[in-house]
Structure formats: C-alpha cells, structure tokens
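User: Good morning. I'm curious how 0O2 would be positioned relative to this chain. Could you predict the structure with it bound?
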Amino acid sequence: MDTKELEGLLLKYSAALKTLETEISILLQDYEYKNNYNPVEHIKSRLKSYDSASKKLLSKGYDVTIKNIEEHVHDMVGLRIVCSFLSDVKEIVKIIENSDQITVHDKEDYISNPKETGYSSYHLNVYVPVYLIDGVTMVAAEIQIRTVAMDFWASLDHKITYKFKGEIPLEIQEEMQNCADDIHKLDRKMLNLNNQMQEIKDDQEII
Ligand code: 0O2
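Assistant: Good morning! Here's the predicted structure, ligand included:
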C-alpha cells in the first residue's frame, strides 16, 4: 500500500465529510426556518478507519487496496441523522434528494424492509463534490436516517451482536428481533400521539 496515495485518499474523505456536514446543516436549518419545526434530535458523523475498511474488504473477499476501498467501501464517509418521529425520516430523505450539492445514487429502505437482525434505518448512498487543486471529484458517502428509537436499538445491537464474529445463539437473535418489533410499535405509538396532540394544538391556535 502506497502511504502517500493513502494519505491523499483520506484527505479526500475528510474533505467530503466536511462538505456533507455543512450542506446537511444548511438544509436542515432552512427547513426549520421555513416550517417552524426541527425534525432532528441529533447528528453524528465519522470517517471509517483504515483498519475497519480493511476488515470490511476482507470480509467481502476483496484484497486491501486503495482501488478496492474506493470501489467497495461506500461508507468511508458516514453521517447519521437521528430524528424524532417516523414521519420525519421520509421528510429528511426528500430534503436530501432535492439538494443540488448531494447526489443520491442508491437507497435502502430498511424501515419498510428491516434486516433479518431487526435492524431498521433508511440509508442513502450519495456522492459529494470535493474541490481540489486539480478540479472537482465526486466522493462516495453514506447517510443513515433513523428515529431515536431505531437508534437506541442499533447502537445497543452494535455492542451486543453486530460485531461478534462467532455464531449468535438463536434465542438471542430472536430476542433482538423481538426488541426491534417493540421499538417499531413504540415508534408508531409516539407518532400517533404526536399527530393527536398536533390536532389539539392546531385547534387551539384557530380559537
Ligand atoms: P459500522 O461499524 O457501523 O460502520 P454496502 O455498503 O451496501 O456494500 P454494507 O456496508 O454491508 O454493504 O451495507 P449495509 O448492510 O447497508 O450496512 C451499512 C451499515 O449499516 C453498517 O456499517 C452498520 O452501520 C449498519 N448496519 C447494517 N446492518 C446492521 C445491523 O444488523 N445492526 C446494526 N447495529 N447496524 C447495522 P458497517 O460498516 O457494517 O458497520
């Protein structure tokens, strides 16, 4: 592995993350200004480490090369938007799809179709423009959008099962799926309560 080349690649990813954070922050501030509503609980971002990218490549059966990182690790640049209600997820997806800066090239709706583990979240695979001395280059990034409840499940699952290399006992897999079902029920209940309260608040404003 050519270390200078790797340095250049990491520089590009770091620039892409800054661009993505800035663009998302502007879009969400504009949305809040226009709708008097902030759908976001918190945002988290990270650059995947070289070690973690290498592990991912090897697990997919690829050699660890710069070319393979660029072609097969789509989440070197990652940003997660954690929002309040289920309905906010689609709204945020729409905002990003309409952006001129961010190009969505692929999406995975693990909310309508959760993974077998129980994982649910909405993933957007995007390209972000990075302006370097030689010109513009489009860099891949992954945006995960999920509710606080989904984030609770996924964060704990990350620690409990996701990174475990061995065979996970069936009863634990089933319990994790049951927890994911409970999370979905809670999400729907909370959305419903919010909708009911919203009607009450709207009526009050009319009076
Ligand atoms: P980490 O440590 O979170 O970065 P692809 O990118 O489509 O070629 P990939 O990356 O397997 O293939 O895509 P996928 O399945 O959409 O998963 C991408 C990310 O979603 C993962 O990144 C996790 O962050 C998250 N994820 C997917 N499945 C699960 C799950 O069952 N549980 C939890 N907790 N998170 C999940 P990484 O790089 O695998 O991990």
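The chain is about 55% helix and 20% strand. The chain has a mean pLDDT of 95.
Let me know if you'd like a different ligand tried.
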